[in-house]
Amino acid sequence: MKWSSFQYLTKQGLHNLRANRLMSLASIGVLTACLLLTGIAGLFSANVNSLVEYLGDQNETVVYLDQGLSDEELASVDQTLRSMPGLAAVTYVSQEEVLETYKGYMSEYADLFNDFEEDNPFHANYRVVLENLNQLDEMIAQLEQIDGVYSVSAPTQLSSVFLTIQRAVTYAGWALVAVLALVSVVVISNTIRLTVFARRKEINIMKYVGATNGFIRWPFFVEGTSVGLISGLLAAGLVIGAYALVVNRVGAMSGFWGPILGSCLLSVGQVWPAVLGAFLIFGVVIGSIGTATSIRKYLEV
User: Partners of 151 in the beta sheet?
Assistant: First the structure.
């Protein structure tokens, strides 16, 4: 296609977009609504996953040490733990610190613990946080094999609950996004099909006078992609603006859940590039597919 023909057909497509403004507005409205629902579902799923990961990271596995370890043996255990792959954090808690912790828990009966200062019955331990809860059972087995480790206490049941919730939300979120994407394709295709149907005679005349399929398709393609771009920009602006309000409101919350949600919610800076890029690409793809499927049968003359 010559550059002059490309310019002419592009201008023609934009002109048709304005000339058929009612159908164009209908297409933009439908696609924007579908993108809004898809964006809300995607952000909800991403933030729930972030919340589950945050709560999962708060569950510490406690590695209790044998009593009476020498400094060399303790240093060996320490080096082994800190060099193990898969551990996000390793914190040592001495026998004395454990005793003081229990005194704090039972401050009214702290005197009862005075007898333990000479013969401390508590085990020194390490508090470790795993990078991936899916590897919990495997990591427990490795920790128990370390020389000098007395026992390992891990929140296996709670971790299993967190992983189950995370998988369920992930699958449900992606399934919802897929369904909404399919609905978007069907609805926008039908909307564009109405536009093409109203101009079927024009297409037939162009075919009879020798116009190529590409020459006929390009203005409709420009219309479809323009509708997709406009819808993507509108939906992205609405979703990002609404999400920013939610983040600000959550950040101002007090009580138990305020700080937790404030730490877990993805920031606007993390969200807006992905939302904008995905909406623009999604809009253009849906507009292009809708145009291609709608005009095909009218080219068979």
Answer: 64
